[in-house]
Amino acid sequence: MDLGASKTVNFLDKYGYLELWSILSLVMMAISPMYGYVTLLGLVLYIVLMVKCIHSSSYSYPLWLMVLLASLSTIWGAVGLAFEEVFKLSILILLISTYKFIKVKFDDVLSAFFYVIFLTVLLYPFLQHSGRFSSIFNHPNNLAYTIVLLSAYFLSKGDFKWVRFFIATTLILLSGSSGGVIAIFLVYATYFYKNSKFQMLYFVLLIAFSIVIINFAQELPVFSSIYEKISALDVYTVVDKSEVLSFGNSSSFVWRITYWLALLNEYSYMDMFHKAVGLGVGAMSYGNYAYDWMVTDPHNDYVRILMERGWFFGAVYLVGFYYLIKNSGLGLYSIPAIFLPMSIGNLLSNSCLLLILVILIIRSKYEKL
Asked: Which end of the chain has fewer CB atoms < 10 Å from its terminal CB, N or C?
């Protein structure tokens, strides 16, 4: 990197322009992936023009693997959606390749984004989706799981604050996401479990949480929702509904299982080729559903991966995704924050969450350089 570029970048760092642009990219990504990636592309190109250099990093290899799989998918799947994924992943690769040359306070960026989301509570009546608070996100579940991931990040670096716990819990309760409530509880339980000085506090909170569920399950909507979803589960009914493709008039938990069984049944009828490589990128996404009876996305990323990428490419994709998470520095927190929620949600379609993971990789690997 030449001296002139270094001075220019240092000037930008001094006044925090790169931090502001990074926060703006996260906000725009939450509002709309299209706006987010355009904003992010502008940031990346600006950095490239300033430093006049790109660094090839092994930390981006998992993303390169995903690009390869998406590119191969164009042979038998939807070309447009596959190239769209290649474009998005390429921007994230460029992000990793350029941020090495600048000094961005990633802790400040992610903390600021967290509090920006919280401030949107002031607009609660106007930022709702089907009666649930969604903040600047296009769906309440995306809000909930993003807050879960940010909380996991703060805790993974030992930054525990009661005010943040209160904010995270409040936002997730307002979102009405049952999976989000369970995930945030498990994230904080992981923290208390890992820190021996908080062992007693961990058990106190666990007991208090259980009492809240028992005593107020019928009074607080989100807890009531969890209770109803579990109690409504009937294996025989689920199997019968999946066979006749009947998904309505059930709790969302029962509906999800019914939907998954119907999709897995379709998978069983695929030929050997498509069982191995899937139906192609985007086959489970709105506007490009592979089956005319589909009414929404799978709400299970493992089922999505199997259907879109097959057992072979799906396994390769999961290996790449695993190393992506491993490089993020989340450690044990990745289980309750990422891998478990993937079984009941659409985390892979949450572009804001993916951008945060990439920022965590940059922070984890480059902060000491």
From this structure: C
